[in-house]
Amino acid sequence: MFDFQAQENEDLIQNRIALLERMVSKFGDKLNFENPLNMSFDENLDSYYPLIKELKTFFGFNFFLNLWGTDTEAEGQTCLQVQLLNMDTHQRLVIKFMVPEGQVVPSLTNLWKGCFWCEQETWDMLGVEFSEIPKERIFSPDGMEGFPLRKDFRPKPFQLKSSKYEFTPDPRVDREIWKQRTVLEKDFFLGEVNGPVKAILECDEDKVARGRLEVGFLHRGIEKIAEGLEARQILVHLGRINMNCSSFYEQVFCDGVEAHLDIDIPERAKALRMVINEIERIFEHLDTLGRVCDNLGCKPFLFECLEMREGLTQILKEYSGRRMPHQIIILGGVFKDTPKGWITDCLRVLEIVQKKTIEISRMISKSTLWMDRLCDYELDSNQALSWGVTGPNLRASGVNYDLRKVNPHYFYDDIDFEIPLGINGQCYDRYLVRVEEIFQSISIINQLLDNLPLGSHLSKDARIYIPFKEDVYKESEALIAHHKLIKEGVQLPIGEFYNSIESPNGELGVHLLCNNSSRPLRFKLRTPSYYSGQCFSDVIEGGEPDEVPLVISSLNISIGEVDR
Amino acid sequence: MNNDNNMNQDILSDVAMVVDSKSFLERWSISLKRDQLWPFPVSFSCCSTELRGFKGKHFEPSILDLHEYFREPDKADLLVLGGTITHKMAPRLKEIYRQMPEGKMVMAIGACASSGGPYWTYSVVQGVSQLFPVDIYLPGCPPSPEAIVEAFSSIEERLEKRVSAISQINWSLNV
């Protein structure tokens, strides 16, 4: 029999080698073969825009992942990093540029629309100026002095300024027609959507001509806080960014640190992490489904979803003893083995969830009211790729990209599951994809729990493992290890790493720059909602102002993720 | 136990009247008769997830089931805050507080709303008490639904005793 999978993998590897050979012949010694592939330029900024355009057009790096800056030790110099992805070969690339103070960097918004918030945030946090990007605060409070992520930043008391966003003239219509449009401001602070957000809409009679989201109402400065904390303390903050899928944030960080320290965790821990993650995936999708029902006025289904969620919360509580940020995943594995009888309980609850979800989807999927309201607000694949949207929103537009398949970690390679795809990228497709993903997740959990590996649940590596208190009193080695880990924290060797995972909303990545101490120099998150929040302005075009919460909840824009 | 059940049913029937009755006078008379809470939950980040779970069937009769009907702050008398409060958010909260009628009460759910929580940064207000007086502080990150139920019952106690944060401090209302 011909093995398609093996052939595909071979093709992939050959394509990747061909791409790298082409890049080496072109760029030579500027490339740095680390993980991720690095490319650093110390020259002036003249080659910045042409180089990235060349990479996009000739080398297939067509997907924009992230853009961020780091304050360096050199006076007034900022290291600007752009991360790109080649979707054919799944090759990632980081391009580094040094930006002197006062120099204007050309904007990348012509190539990818999704850079807009990234560049605005870089000005807000570090004071790097971009052409064509308004110098407005996006996250930090307006009226504050200084740039928070610079190392010399000291917070001072300030007077809050209230600034109002004004639309620039629309180039698509006449100026006279544009002047007749009205501007609506709608704020959603009362739990209609996941977090506080304000929508600014430019309305042409009853329809929305242009719209954008104003964010920053939940900006807590986690990236700044993390610079003063050690790995275990960062974990506590990560779990609280998006409470519905906290385990993904914990896992992406733990996995990255473990890979950086070259620690292999036990197989049982891997499997349990996967189980917890998939439960959280169902949790987040049920939350989205409930919100969509809520915004459409289907209250009974909302209560059904909330009840199913409560069942899953009880399961996680049974495991960890805590309700909401359960924090099961820690450095080196999971903090506790499964309690007695937990697996049976979990399977029982999942069966109920499956039955009820089938019931709900049977009732509403084909109903005319549901289809009438949801078959709208299209996001086609080109737009989605340009905005940097990932996850179910991208898959609903018909692009088959899931990190669990293209870059499988742990046991995703051995497990039999499918990736549901949509066609039109409408709200209805997004709903269908999410419902199907619930079933796939249940099937993954069933397969995992049937073949749960035996063994330890925690790695006993001395660099991360805190010994038990009983051993500390008896053995001197355990005492030393305990003292060092509690007092100084996990030592992170010099270097940087990027790790990513498929979270329920899309690609979730963490970038850490370490300097031989327990505290990181720079901590950067790539959160999926950050990009689906930007694409809102494309999706809402031509829609009705009353349906903004429906669109936000169908894209599942979690403001906690956006603002951090 | 039987007594309690009867009480609950009593509350529920009254609540149903409040929701169904259209005329303002009728609602007003009911709210005078028994100190009915009309909460107005403003939910932000994580603690709002717990508030949302609270709406489910597990904690009946839940007062927050009603909150769909009180989306306007000028009809509510209890402001329920859950989540981190940022400097950008503060003016909007003050506005909501000003819109609420006399005799208002405030409940801060979770560590962030009470004191700023673990976020001691440039953008976070270190507790709601910097904006207006607070009646109930509810610790926890996030507090469990049982704790939220308990907080509501202690708010009812304060109502019975006619105590509120404003009357104690003699707060000037030019916020």
- Assembly annotation: heterodimer
Tell me about the largest β-sheet of chain B. 4 strands, parallel
Q: How many domain modules of chain B?
A: 2
Q: What integer value in Å does the Rg of chain B equal?
A: 16 Å
As laid out across the biggest beta sheet of chain A, the strand order is: 1-2-5-4-3
Q: Give the strand order of the largest sheet of chain B, numbering strands 1, 2, ... along the chain.
A: 1-2-3-4
Poorly predicted ranges of chain B (pLDDT <50, ≥5 residues)? 1-35, 56-69, 169-175
Please tell me what the overall shape of chain A is.
globular
The counted number of beta strands of chain A is: 15
Straight-line distance between termini of chain A? 50 Å
Strand content of chain A: 15-25%
Radius of gyration of chain A: 24 Å
CATH fold-level label of the largest domain in chain B: Rossmann fold
| CATH top level class name of the largest domain in chain A | Mainly Alpha
Coarse structural class of chain B: alpha/beta
The CATH homologous superfamily of the largest domain in chain A: Cytochrome-c3 Hydrogenase, chain B
Structural class of chain A: alpha+beta
Describe this structure in words.
The complex is a heterodimer of chains A (564) and B (175). In chain A, a hairpin with a 7-residue loop joins strand 14 and strand 15. Chain A starts with a helix and ends with a helix. In chain A, the strands form 5 sheets. In chain A, strands 1-2-5-4-3 form a 5-stranded mixed sheet. With 564 residues, chain A is α+β, with helices and mostly antiparallel strands. The model of chain A has no long low-confidence stretch (mean pLDDT 85). The radius of gyration of chain A is 24 Å and the shape is globular. Chain A folds into 2 domains: 127 residues, Beta Polymerase, domain 2, CATH 3.30.460.80; 342 residues, Orthogonal Bundle (Cytochrome-c3 Hydrogenase, chain B). The longest helix of chain A has 30 residues. With 175 residues, chain B is α/β, with parallel strands linked by helices. Chain B folds into 2 domains: 36 residues; 133 residues, 3-Layer(aba) Sandwich (Rossmann fold), CATH 3.40.50.12280. Chain B is built from 7 helices and 4 strands, in the order H-H-E-H-E-H-E-H-E-H-H. In chain B, strands 1-2-3-4 form a 4-stranded parallel sheet. In chain B, helix 1 packs antiparallel against helix 2. The N and C termini of chain B lie far apart (45 Å). The N terminus and C terminus of chain B are likely disordered. Classes of the chains: A alpha+beta (564), B alpha/beta (175). Chains A and B meet through helix 5 and helix 9 of A and strand 1, helix 3 and helix 4 of B.
